[in-house]
TrEMBL record, chains A, B:
Top EC group: ligase
Free-text function comment from the UniProt entry: Catalyzes the attachment of L-aspartate to tRNA(Asp) in a two-step reaction: L-aspartate is first activated by ATP to form Asp-AMP and then transferred to the acceptor end of tRNA(Asp).
Protein name, UniProt field: Aspartate--tRNA ligase
Family of the protein in this entry: Belongs to the class-II aminoacyl-tRNA synthetase family. Type 1 subfamily.
Annotated Gene3D superfamilies: Bira Bifunctional Protein, Domain 2, GAD-like domain, Nucleic acid-binding proteins
Gene for this chain: aspS
Gene Ontology molecular functions: aspartate-tRNA ligase activity; ATP binding; nucleic acid binding
Catalytic activity entry: tRNA(Asp) + L-aspartate + ATP = L-aspartyl-tRNA(Asp) + AMP + diphosphate
Protein localization: Cytoplasm
Length: 583, 583
């Protein structure tokens, strides 16, 4: 037996006991006659001591120790003279009678501490050492805890966790698939699933009634800062339900998990139509931890001689509390900020509503104090506030103003971590027009049911049709999304037609789903949650990379094991493949 | 709301209530004035009735129904005149007041009943209909239940469920990898994991202490009857443990799960060295539900003038209880059975130990009754038993005799389903010599620790070295296997050397693991269970295919969605690949 206790377990109760611990050397302090070693494992840190009574053998072994050596230590638990209240084992220490080096360690490339001196790249290369740091490992423990909590809730509520295949059929809709050449079927390929969408719908046709799975999904997209080629989804589907049933069920799941893992009680989730979210927050995933709503002041500001506003499709404004005293420099900063290509505004108009009730704006030439007072009233602004105005075409300007709102929220520290404000965004448009390819794309996916009231518009004005789709948004982050599904093969065929599939293409790609619908498909609906994102929200982190044990970098590489990598020519031969020459 | 209750929920208590159910039409019986519809969902079957008071509208809708139509039915719960004790809702029926067809159904290609008329191929093509059958869906429900039980035990015992990557680096040791071309890294490939072996060892280096994961693994092998290209593993690893700790922990897990899911109490698991398993059972996965042990009678039978035995390296025998009365035809059958290429014996010698104490054998010419009595004594055979003898080189003959033992166990119905006899097989050889490639292969994998007592043999006689490896065997099926790992980089380097890797090859393939070991690796050990096989054992099934929602056939194809499939040339171009011409 390597140990009698873990390094986080011993308390004053154990004083006098002979124990054996094993773990990593966190720190050594050598004061000649006395030495102290902090021994660390997943469960905590325990202090080992030697003194003038310690055997020469132990003392000699101790001389050889370095940081991160793995050792086994035997000794007697005794009370510490000066307690350490920062650690759970701080009342005791172990007076060493035996010491064995299990594994030596080279000097690690960075310090294994909460505040490490290692840069990002180094820590990714030595991920196994980075994971030794408490702060990092805790995120992964939290991840396991969230998953377990979700599983408990769903299992207790009758959902059957069902594994769906990883080697599936490639479908052209959506993002790019990763593919897997089949040796046994030369020239043919599997795809890795972007989601188990079709399989979970087939499980509903199969009468499973309630399905879930915590499952890896794959997208071969150019990676952005917070994307991973493989990611994890909590994937759910239910039969004989309407949108209302789904929202209720998963609102309960979210409340249960927040309570269970973080001991946070969430209020009932408000519901907001997509159109309101865009108009009031300039985003389909509004952060409602703070107000600072967008106001459409187009009609208020036009026809006063300011040509930029007069020619704009939309003029919108927000009022930032207490920012009327912003300096010239701060305003310039904001102006540059909105002009960045990511935001894309042409310029920024400001109105300072001074504490004394006077106004100072960048458009004083065109608008009187009374005019500006009118704007302030429309925005419910108060003396001391700074009104910020953007103008231009409506779609882009609303979004830019939404981004500016978030930026001001950051500056005013209104987006507090540890405060969780979930809501359901509902009534999404069913279709999005793509100007480039001159066709509609499904905003969620081609299986999303139109709102029954809007089905009449499918032929006349498809862009106006609302979907029975919903997103769960928390603190401005889309945590999950789903929809009521089409369960009628004719309506599904019509959708494929609108999306530009020929009947033959639709049949080739989704034939097995449409065939399945011919044998009695129940009404069904579902949702999928981004598990990595959910966990990073629980952990108060901004990146999903920190809640993934072995993440890949932005080029899709694992720098620790240097993959992907070339494979042997024999492997390629077996797969009936050859590499193209790179020009 | 689509339903107030499920089809398995209503009891005599509900009589008089107005309810709405939804589900599939299982059966319709039309008796003119009265009609009965069995309505089915995942939860059960409820009988709907119409009578002379039923509205014309309902009656008309009812006329349109066919098998597997999805309907919504409203009515009043009333007591049945003749109760059906076979179903949980058998005390009541629903007198219909409303009936709506939610989805019609074409006539299904086979009957949706426990005893279906559908053949294998048809049921795989329409897997979503096959899954509607109670018997099939129950297997998947059981699967979810086993997984949940395993997760509860491991989580309660401090194991952190940690996801490891699916897109990893290809390693040449072991079976063939599936590979995934990387678009962002032209000419390079990911591999899909055959197991998360290296990652779980890295998690031990990272101090995770106890890890588990229920995880998909992949092997591109030619498929045999009960193999799938993707399969699921319960993968576990622990630090600061010896073999004894691992066996104890996972014996508890197995007992917990059998108790929890099947309400079966398992006895303590015996432990059997590999050498005993081979000698006594002719198998490294002995079925110990019955005795009929193998006996080495080589020295007993030699030098009596029977040249076949005299020239054999090994002569072994089993005694089949009560089979002395086997007919000539039955003996011939057995002889042909052992001569099949899968068994490969040259012939079969039998000795009938008749009820009257006399002997009749196929070698009476060479052996006296006293000789045969000596054999019987060695085998503890009794009058009425049939002694079966195989001879030849030891390795093959022992295995063939082990197969014959199982066959006799089947014939004598000694291998009862519902009886579970687990054991640990231990002390496996570390290495297997491969005559073809003239090198040693790791019997488990290259990270398995040799038994410390045998390390001295590593240079002098590697084939004799026992491994610190163990298999969990239940009823003759290998359910899990694992080992204590090497945690010392020099010993690991030596193993790679013995396995024929050059230091450069070892470094290129496993460098990141060997590097990790330089920074303080803890002693660690682990195990992996074949989850599909475990569930099929729980379900009393012989094939893992029946416990997989969407399995592939023996050519690795999903016949439901016809994958794998060709992909577009543009996709190949993006991946810098082209297909080779097939000759």
């Amino acid at each position: 037996m390597y140990r009698t206790h873990t390094c986080g377990e011993l308390r004053a109760d154990h004083v006098g006991e002979e124990v054996t611990l094993a773990g990593w050397v966190q720190k050594i302090r050598d004061f000649g006659a006395m030495s102290f070693v902090d021994l660390r494992d997943r469960y905590g840190i325990t202090q080992l001591v030697t003194n003038e009574n310690t055997s020469a053998k132990v003392t000699e072994t101790l001389q050889q120790l370095g940081r991160e050596f793995v050792i086994q230590a035997t000794g007697t638990v005794r009370e510490r003279s000066s307690k350490n209240k920062n650690i759970a084992t701080g009342e005791i220490e172990i007076e060493l009678s035996g010491l064995k080096i299990l594994s030596p360690s080279a000097v690690p490339p960075f310090t294994i501490q909460d505040d490490t001196d290692g840069g990002d790249d180094l820590r990714m290369k030595y991920r196994y050492l980075d994971l030794r740091r408490n702060a990092v490992r805790k995120n992964l423990e939290l991840r396991a805890q969230v998953a377990h909590s979700v599983r408990n809730f769903l299992t207790e509520n009758g959902f059957i966790e069902t594994e769906t295949p990883v080697l599936i059929k490639s479908t052209p809709e959506g993002a790019r698939d990763f593919v897997v050449p089949s040796r046994m079927n030369p020239g043919e390929f599997y795809a890795l699933p972007q989601s188990p969408q079709i399989f979970k719908q087939l499980l509903m046709v199969a009468g499973f009634d309630k399905y879930f799975q915590i499952v890896k999904c794959f997208r071969d997209e150019d990676l952005r800062a917070d994307r991973q080629p493989e990611f994890t989804q909590i994937d759910c589907e239910m039969s004989f339900v309407e949108q209302e049933d789904v929202l209720n069920t998963f609102e309960k799941l979210a409340k249960y998990t927040f309570k269970n893992v973080l001991d946070v009680d969430l209020d009932d989730f408000p519901r907001m139509p997509y159109s309101t979210a865009m108009e009031k927050y300039g985003s389909d995933k509004p952060d409602i931890r703070f107000e600072m709503l967008l106001h459409d002041i187009t009609t208020t500001v036009q026809n006063k001689g300011f040509s930029i506003f007069d020619s704009a499709e939309y003029v919108g404004a927000i009022a930032a509390k207490g920012c009327a005293e912003y300096s010239r420099k701060q305003i310039d900063e904001l102006t540059n900020w909105v002009k960045r290509p990511q935001i894309g505004a042409k310029g920024l108009v400001y109105v300072k509503y001074n504490e004394d009730g006077s106004f100072k704006s960048s458009v004083d030439k065109f608008y009187s104090a009374d005019d500006l007072k009118g704007w302030a009233e429309q925005l419910n602004a108060n003396p001391g506030d700074l009104i910020l105005v953007l103008s231009g075409d409506k779609a882009h300007t609303v979004t830019a103003l939404g981004e500016l709102r978030l930026e001001m929220g950051n500056r005013l520290e209104l987006r507090k971590k540890g405060t969780f404000k979930p809501l359901w965004v509902i009534d999404f448009p069913l279709l999005e027009w793509n100007e480039e390819s001159k066709r509609f794309f499904a905003m969620h996916h081609p299986f999303t049911s139109p709102n029954p009231e809007d089905i009449v518009l499918l032929d006349s004005d498809p862009g106006k049709v609302r979907a029975n789709a919903y997103d769960l948004v928390i603190n401005g982050v889309e945590i999950g999304g789903g929809s009521v599904r089409i369960f009628n093969s004719e309506l599904q065929a019509k959708m494929f037609d609108i999306l530009g599939f020929t009947p033959e293409q639709a049949m080739a790609q989704f034939g097995f789903l449409m065939n399945a619908f011919k044998y009695g498909a129940p009404p069904h609906a579902g949702i999928a949650f981004g598990f990595d994102r959910l966990v990073s929200m629980f952990a108060g982190l901004d990146s999903i990379r920190d809640v993934i044990a072995f993440p890949k970098n932005n080029a899709g590489r694992d720098v620790m094991n240097d993959s992907p990598a070339p494979i042997a020519n024999e492997q390629l031969d077996e797969l009936f493949l050859q590499l193209k020459k790179l020009d």
